[in-house]
Write a structure and sequence with these properties.
It is a single chain. The chain is mainly alpha-helical. The protein has one domain (about 5-65). About 80% of the residues lie in helices and about 0% in strands. The chain has two helices and no strands. Helix 1 runs antiparallel to helix 2. The chain is elongated and about 50 Å long.
Length: about 70
């Protein structure tokens, strides 16, 4: 299995964390309706983004250590 690029994981994690922050913000100011699916999606995006960002940072640190 090919290991993904650390920067791709970090960027994808950042995008997901931002989606997990922006969606609840838009729900609070009533620009989009608050649904159960959207609430779970925002939570999962935030947690998954945090996980991918940490994984990408660990892969980056590991690749720099080998040099």
């Amino acid at each position: 299995m090919k290991i993904p690029s650390p920067w791709r994981l970090i960027v994808l994690g950042f995008v997901l964390v931002m989606a997990g922050w922006i969606l609840p913000f838009l729900m609070v100011i009533h620009w989009i309706p608050s649904t159960l699916f959207l609430n779970f999606f925002a939570y999962i995006a935030s947690v998954l983004g945090l996980f991918l960002g940490i994984w990408g940072a660990a892969l980056y640190a590991q690749s720099r250590r080998k040099r």
